[in-house]
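Render this sequence as a predicted structure.
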Amino acid sequence: MYGDLPHPAEVADAAQHLFTEATSYAPSSPYSASKASSDHLVRAWQRTYGFPVLITNCSNNYGPYHFPEKLIPLVILNALEGKPLPIYGKGDQIRDWLYVEDHARALYKVVTEGKVGETYNIGGHNEKQNIEVVHTICDILDELASGRHSAKPGHSAFDAESSYKQLITNVEDRPGHDRRYAIDASKIERELGWKPQETFESGIRKTVQWYLNNLEWCQRVQDGSYQRERLGVM
């Protein structure tokens, strides 16, 4: 809902640009605008009626129980079935990844120690291009799930000795796709003493292993009409 930030491919000092609690909302899509509007609503209630409000804005979450529409579980589950791994555009969109249990710990900190009326940004300090994330998942699956995938349609050479990276497929970028997100989480670290416990490397390994151990849950959540298509796109 903050919009997007300068991309390293476009400006030399991109790393200096981060979303802070003072950054103005500039949503690029109706989906983002709906989230921004909810913050405006509760802030208005706080100012007008003194409603006790605490607002948090986080970077991209990942981890167990992530809905299969999203990038990380989609890549894991498609790879295990030998299906294409769709990458929007060049895959150079950058996100700051936050392990879900770190996010939960941050939320508990805010609700128990935060100051009413304040906003706290929660980030994982893990800026990665989407293509980097997909490559990392494929490397872990090559190690942990070698031989578990079925053949890619039309590619008989895709066997137990092949890398899941062979399944990567570039597709047309989606509308309103922001180029880069990055959260400045210094306020919550400074005022509430929270820091993420997981690195991206430790968190993504735990995530892949969780999906490998819980394929029955994945199957159940996909039963019925939902087939991993991105929701909200005509």
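Summary. The chain has one domain: 14-222. The beta strands are 55-58, 60-62, 85-88, 94-99, 119-122, 127-129, 168-171.
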